Structure formats: structure tokens, C-alpha cells
Amino acid sequence: MTDQIKKKSNTNDYVFKDGFKYQHDNPYHDRLKAFDGFVLRDNEGEENCGNWAKKEFKNDNPIEVEIGSGYGHFMLEYTQNNHSINFVGLDHRFKRSFQLAKKLDKMEVKNFRYLRARGERLAHLFGESEVSKIFYFFPDPWPKTRHHKKRLFQKTFLDQAYKVLRNDGIFLIKTDHDEYFDWMVDVAQKDERFEVQMQSYDLRSEFPDHFLASFKTKFEKIFLEKGIKIKAMVLKINK
Hints:
Rossmann fold; 11 helices
């Protein structure tokens, strides 16, 4: 029993490390195989590490990554309006990934790949300085104190983001959650490898013309209807 508890408590750290293998028994894993022209499952995406442009997209366009694509509202709109990028969206939820894959399959321009994968695997999915932008919108805030260790945005993750981002790379963030935003601001400000280019607790009032205010995700629309202010931050890499 003690070993089981210890194993469970170390699960989050293990996801970041070499040798991690996905373990699950979910019918949507097999159903996603129907979209293997642009969907990669579990560790499959890691086979492209360092070679996404050449091996997967077969061009030299910049690689842009969204962690937690959710229902895909941003991914669908952004990729169809920006054909000169290579976009990689990822999420680890099965049914949501399958529903999004069905929508992506209908897109005429497929300048994207979708990963049923976890954000903790960022540095295993992409090589050093391979990514130009990272998008991180409305992540699970894990509000309870005992769950804070499950938050993705922490030093271990920033180590990975720093590794995969190019010298001119940027990290774009939006959230509705005040306390998690405070957490992210604190973590970012303590890390000299990143420069905070923009920070706001009320994006649409303070920066109405900013790129991050130019679109609304599914969750964002719900939060705005409830009068919740959108928090946003842009980090620039310092290499």
C-alpha cells in the first residue's frame, strides 16, 4: 500500500522524464487512428523530435505549439487564417481529442498536426530551438492547495519551454483564474531566461488591440459572459 501511494505521488514528476510511457484503456484511443494522417497518439509525436518541419510538414515554416487545444476553437481559426505556419496542437483528453479530430479532418488546408499527448512532454516532443511560439490558454488551474503540484506552469515546465523555443520565441498565455495567474506571474518573474513583454489582469480593457484580444475561445466566451476579466501574459525568450 505504501508503494502505491508513493508511486501515485511521484506520477507528475515521472511524466517529465525519459522513459515515460502512456498507460490507458480508452476506446477513443483506437478511434483516433482513423485520423492518423494528422493525429499522433501518445509517444508517437516524440519520434519527430527535432525534425517536425522536415519529417512531418516537409517545409521550413515556423513551428507553433498549443498546449491544451481543448475544443479547438483557436486551433481551427488560427491555422486556417495563417497558412504559412506549421501548427501542432495537443491535449490529453480522449473524447475531446476525437471530437476535435473530426472537425480538423474537414479543414481544406491541413497545416497542422494534432497530438493526443501531455504538455509535460514538451521537450520530448520538440528539439532544441525548434518552436517559435507556445500558446497556453485557459488551463486547468488546480485551485486546491493540495493540487498545486499538478499545475503545468512551474520551473520544470519552463525549463522545457526554454529549451524548445527559438531565440526570438514567445510564450502566450490567457486564463480566467486570478490565483493561477498570480502563480504564473511569480514563476515567470523569478526566471531570468524569460522577459515579461506584456502582463494584464484585464486584457480587453488594457490591451484591446493586442493579438490575444483578437479572438475568443469556447471557455473565454463563457467567462466574459459572466463578467470575469481575462488575464494575459506574453513571455519572450532570452537566450
